[in-house]
Design brief:
This protein is an alpha/beta fold and 158 residues long. The protein has one domain: Metallo-dependent phosphatases (Purple Acid Phosphatase, chain A, domain 2). It is 22% helix and 34% strand. The chain has four helices and ten strands, in the order βαβαβαββαβββββ. A five-stranded mixed sheet has the order 3-2-1-9-10, covered by helices on one side. A five-stranded mixed sheet has the order 4-5-6-8-7, covered by helices on one side. The radius of gyration is 14 Å and the shape is globular. The two termini are 20 Å apart.
């Protein structure tokens, strides 16, 4: 199983670059995680046309915050994934999200716009970076693969 992981898209409306890229991802992935800060409701509506599990971020509009939890646990292929956006300053966020969601196979978070792909004990800690389209940060997403040896992650340009 392959999971495309997006976060911090920070888009105020849909554009063809975003929709075309997500459609490409959906052809290679079985599921999509979005870790918050979609910002606009039409982004969530578009993503809901694919197998999606999402959480709300601090910058999301009221409609997204009302329809999506701030954290959730989902089980896929026998593995438990924690999804959370994150909060506060970037320093120590990885430790805070692990404390918030202990004992899982993989904890996925966003908020910092910085990619993370590291093991903490038996847990894979994964931040896909930001799929935002601006000059301040490199636009990225993540792929998680569930295979015979467990869960592995990698980062790719969005």
């Amino acid at each position: 199983m392959v999971i495309a992981v997006l976060s911090d898209t920070h888009r105020t409306s849909l554009d063809s670059r975003f929709t075309d890229r997500v459609e490409e991802l959906a052809r290679e992935a079985d599921h999509i995680f979005h870790l918050g800060d979609m910002v606009a409701r039409d982004i969530l509506d578009f993503l809901n046309s694919f197998p999606l599990t999402a959480v709300a971020g601090n910058m999301d509009c009221p409609e997204i915050k009302a329809s999506q939890p701030i954290k959730r646990i989902v089980e896929l292929e026998g593995y438990r994934f924690g999804l959370i956006h994150g909060w506060g300053g970037p320093f120590g966020l990885d430790d805070r999200v692990l404390k918030e969601m202990p004992g899982l196979d993989c904890v996925c978070f966003g908020h910092t716009h910085r990619p993370v792909n590291e093991r903490r004990g038996r847990t894979l800690l994964f931040n896909p970076g930001s799929a935002q389209n601006d000059s301040r940060s490199k636009s990225m997403y993540g792929l998680l693969k569930i295979g015979p040896d467990g869960i592995s992650g990698r980062h790719l340009p969005f």
